[in-house]
Amino acid sequence: NNNLGTNGTVQVSGCRFVDNSEGLELQGYAPFRVSNCEFRGNHATINQWSGGITDFTKALGGISNEIANCSFVGNSSAFQGPSGGALTVAEGGGYTATAVINCSFLGNQKLGGYGGAGAVWVAVSLVPSNLIKNCVMWNNEVDGSTNVNNASLGLALNSPQVIIGNSLIQNLNPAGVGNLECIDAGLELKR
């Protein structure tokens, strides 16, 4: 468990989080930037939110957090509640937003029948929007199926909108502005 709780600015760059019980959990009032990292084969248990990154931060104002140029492959979550197999944006106090830019999410899973998303789950937040830009989310699963609306991206009932730009998100329904149309991206999980 790589839990970082701080009041300073957190920067994580060029790291590999492979085959852990949980990848990276961020909390506190610190804005953060995670860049050029690989999250592969991490498996969150029933008491952990996401296999890749769990964002519980409470930094004040606007888009304070950024996850850029990262890959999330084959992560899973068995958390007993809604979460994302690769990434959960829960925002502990709800006053900040997270931008996910130039990232790929492939073959991640949400297990256990408690809801959530195979790749990215966005929980309740008090800010207007989170951002997903230039990302690919493909072959992610919820309880063994890639053919459900939240296999790649899921939003809690009271979540704000997520702004999507130039991304390829499988089974996003409704497709929304900024999601590229594609029947089969031809992407396969390679371990």
Unreliable parts: none
Radius of gyration, taken over Cα atoms and rounded to an integer in Å: 15 Å
User: Biggest β-sheet: count, sense, barrel?
Assistant: 6 strands, parallel
Amount of helix: under 10%
Determine the structural class based on helices, strands and strand pairing: mainly beta
State which percent range the strand residues make up: 35-45%
Q: Give the tally of β-strands.
A: 24
Q: Give me the strand/helix succession.
A: EEEEEEEEEEEEEEEEEEEEEEEE
Give the strand line-up of the largest sheet: 1-4-8-13-18-22
Distance between the termini: 22 Å
Backbone shape: globular
Number of helices: 0
Mean pLDDT rating: 81
List the keywords.
42% strand, mainly beta, six-stranded parallel beta sheet, 24 strands, 191 residues, globular
Could you give a quick summary of the protein structure above?
The protein has 191 residues and is mainly β. Helix content is 0%, strand content 42%.
